[in-house]
Design a protein that fits this description.
This protein has three helices and four strands. The chain is of the alpha+beta class and 110 residues long. This is DUF77-domain-containing protein.
């Protein structure tokens, strides 16, 4: 099984949830995660319920794992992350390509 490769490119949407913090607000922790993502070099966009990142399969999952590590290093003992990952092999399509296509279709309706 170890000889099965991962897809070369993927888009992942993830929502990282620190559990057991002293405040219901986790904006400071999310800001730390955003700094990490920005420095990682992967393409990304933050939205109100998470972040979408794209790159190689290994790099995308590495960045999500590193996000866990930086929060654990701050003393957050438990983190839950929901991840949705998509890949396709017929063409490379960025998350922006997907949004642009839908906007194009919506523009035709006006």
């Amino acid at each position: 099984m170890t000889s099965i490769p991962t897809p070369t490119h993927c888009v992942a949407d993830f929502c990282l949830i620190p559990i057991g913090t002293s405040s219901p607000s986790v904006s400071a922790q999310i800001a730390d995660v955003q700094r990490l993502i920005e420095s990682s070099g992967v393409k990304y966009v933050m939205h109100s319920a998470g972040t979408t990142i794209e790159g190689t399969w290994d790099r995308v999952l590495q960045v999500i794992g590193q996000a866990h590590t930086i929060l654990h290093q701050q003393g957050i003992v438990r983190i839950q992350t929901d991840i949705r990952v998509g890949s396709r092999i017929d063409k490379e399509q960025s998350f922006q390509d997907k949004v642009d296509k839908v906007r194009e279709l919506l523009g035709r309706e006006e």
